[in-house]
Amino acid sequence: MGEEVKVFGAWASPFSRRVELALRLKGVPYEYIEEDIYKNKSPLLLKYNPVHKKVPVLLHNGKAIAESLVILEYIEETWKNNSILPQDPYEKAMARFWAKFIDDKCWPAIRKAEWSPESEREKAMEEACECLKALESALNGNKFYGGHTIGLVDIAANFIGFWLSIVQEATERELLSAHKFPLLFNWSHDFVNCGIVQECLPPKDKVLAIFKARVAAPSN
Amino acid sequence: MGEEVKVFGAWASPFSRRVELALRLKGVPYEYIEEDIYKNKSPLLLKYNPVHKKVPVLLHNGKAIAESLVILEYIEETWKNNSILPQDPYEKAMARFWAKFIDDKCWPAIRKAEWSPESEREKAMEEACECLKALESALNGNKFYGGHTIGLVDIAANFIGFWLSIVQEATERELLSAHKFPLLFNWSHDFVNCGIVQECLPPKDKVLAIFKARVAAPSN
Where is the GST N-terminal domain (chains A, B) (predicted)? Predict the structure, then answer.
């Protein structure tokens, strides 16, 4: 009997893609369930994530786990092949530090820089650039945050690797460029060109259409 | 030769106390360095936590780690006695989920409920109560979140166990009471009455004086 592994996600959500990417890196077969998170959350999603009522949720043999970084740690501990975290406690702490930094600082700063009203934009762009600068330094000369292979921080940074360039195309506001952050720019190129990453990414034109619609109707 | 374990903290900070409590639970001797985080951060703090420039920082044999939840995981992995996390991956994920919930949701909601202007207070109080309700349910009939002993979630929730009752006394706004949240109230009582927790807590009168000064000068 195979085990039950289900992912409740949303196709455009970078957080859902994190979970799928980790499972694929480990070679774990799973069933993907698309949620309509804006208009019609399913009773199962509300049952499995009653606190946040958000995707992604991982369901493993009847047990539900929410919060993408918590799920990634669970995946790492449950399926031990193809590690996404270093074994050394200090290196592991550094990976957790940067993954948390990406969620707590980079994600809100980049959203604000790309989508805030013009009056707040200059400051927001500065803050987002500070975040990207810190993140670039954390590469430490490696191809990926995980070294030669993709690890927790690369997975957490997926929205910087893929979504950010599409947002930039829609808003015509450039944060990440080869000129400003050459190492991080190269990372984003290497990341999205991994075959296993490409398997998990949504079609670029569909994402671009969403962002362009948002530019056209900025109150949404 | 003993190992070097230093904690850079601030006496009134619940986040600094988390690190001290975890080290004491493990019986790890450490040197504590008080930082003047408001007026005069030390060059060492800026060196060891250049990204956030905040306490707490753990320095272990020359290696610095920031972010209290990241530090707690490092402590757990480095000193394996007296576990603060369950061994089972799912139970561990649940502990991480609730610790993250405490930081991401409870901490900002409680701060807002206690300190926001009157016009925003009713909604903020409702949100904070929702958080406490969820946190109460997570006790699952146990004395501590760690079961019979203090674990990661108890440590993370220290500000609800100790600081919240003092804030309530200063602001005269009650969030956590025996009437509203009897199980969580009992938990807070049991938590602050643990000898090892009491070793880590600042003097109540000093904390109360800070909060009363803030009530008297609400613009601060």
Answer: 3-83
- How many folded domains does chain A comprise? 2
Residue of chain A whose Cα is closest to the Cα of B99 = A70
Query: Based on the domain organization, do A66 and A99 belong to the same domain?
Result: no
Looking at beta carbons, which residues of chain B come within 8 Å of A69? Answer: 100
**Same domain? B102 vs B63:** no
CATH of the domain at A177: 1.20.1050.10
Tell me, letter by letter, the H, E, C secondary structure of B160-192: HHHHHHHHHHHHCCCCCCCCCCHHHHHHHHHHH
- Is B46 a domain residue? yes
pLDDT in tens, chain B (220 residues): 579 999 999 999 999 999 999 999 999 999 999 999 989 999 999 999 999 999 999 999 999 999 999 999 999 999 999 999 999 999 999 999 999 999 999 999 999 999 998 899 999 999 999 999 999 999 999 999 999 999 999 999 999 999 999 999 999 999 999 999 999 999 999 999 999 999 999 999 999 999 999 999 865 4
How far does B72 lie from chain A, in Å, by closest CA? Answer: 10
Closest CA to A110 of A53, A163, A73, A41: A163
Domain edge (last residue) among A78, A98, A119: A78
Task: Tell me the residue ranges of DSSP E strands in chain B.
Answer: 5-9, 31-34, 57-60, 63-66
Domain enclosing residue B155, as ranges = 89-216
Chain B CB contacts of A51 under 8 Å are: 101, 134
- For residues B102 and B135, the answer to whether their CB atoms sit within 8 Å is yes
Residue B117 lies in a domain: yes
Q: Look up tokens 């969820």; give the residue.
A: B134
Q: Is residue B165 part of a domain?
A: yes
B63–A74 C-beta distance less than 8 A: no
State the burial class of residue A183 (Cβ atoms within 10 Å of its Cβ: 0-12, 13-18, 19+): middle
Measured between CA atoms, how close is A78 to chain B, in angstroms? 7
In B, minimum Cα distance to A78 occurs at: B89
Q: Which candidate, B184, B88, B90, places its Cα nearest to that of B129?
A: B184
Q: Does any CB of chain A come closer than 8 Å to the CB of residue B136? A: no
Q: Residue A77 is nearest to which of B67, B89, B134, comparing CB atoms?
A: B89
Which residues of chain A does B93 touch, with a Cβ-Cβ cutoff of 8 Å?
65, 70-71, 73-74
For residues B19 and B7, the answer to whether their CB atoms sit within 8 Å is yes
